[in-house]
Amino acid sequence: MNPCKCDAQYCFDALSDSQRAELFGSITTVRYTKGETIVKQGFAMSSILFLEKGIVKLDVATDNQNTTISIVSAKAFVGLMCSFVERQVDFSVVALVDSEVSLIDKHVVDGLIRSNGEFASRMVHLMSLMTKEMVGELTRKNTKNSLGAIALTLLEFMKHFGSAKYALPLTRLELAEVVGFSKESVNLSLAWLAKDGLIVLSGKQVEIVDEERLRIIALNG
Prior knowledge:
The chain is α+β, with helices and mostly antiparallel strands. It is 44% helix and 26% strand.
């Protein structure tokens, strides 16, 4: 199995026509506005979440401190690794932009996993890849200084939006929660990147104008 090709569609392709009909027939699609909570930490998940459109973040609150552990863009499962636990989830999911989420009946997916070995294998592989990516993302940010973490995050949002020019979907405080530094450090880093000509910053509007140098800072910072 090629890990690069293991995504949601690759998992769905393992289903027969009747199984796909059963799965898609169990879906309820819900639209969420920017800033709306999709899943609240401490509550049980009754559905498996698939992000059809938009961008969401996964937050963990501990000791009155909020930390963003992952940012997910469209056409991907959200929190799949924790979807099959019966207990309360340890994270919340919040829409960063207007988003559309498919709520898939967890019992239907569980039944398909039990009856279709290839589908089960692909789902396990996908969950492993998602866990690896999340751990890698956290590790990369935790080993960066403030400037490197900000540069890395701006490049990730460029990938999420598919454009070097976008509206940053976070407040400065939320951006600080993503990179793990203070709001003051975030503001100083953004100001430095703008002053040095790597980005153009106007309120929440960001334009990356020197991607090559920004990538060097993201790598070495």
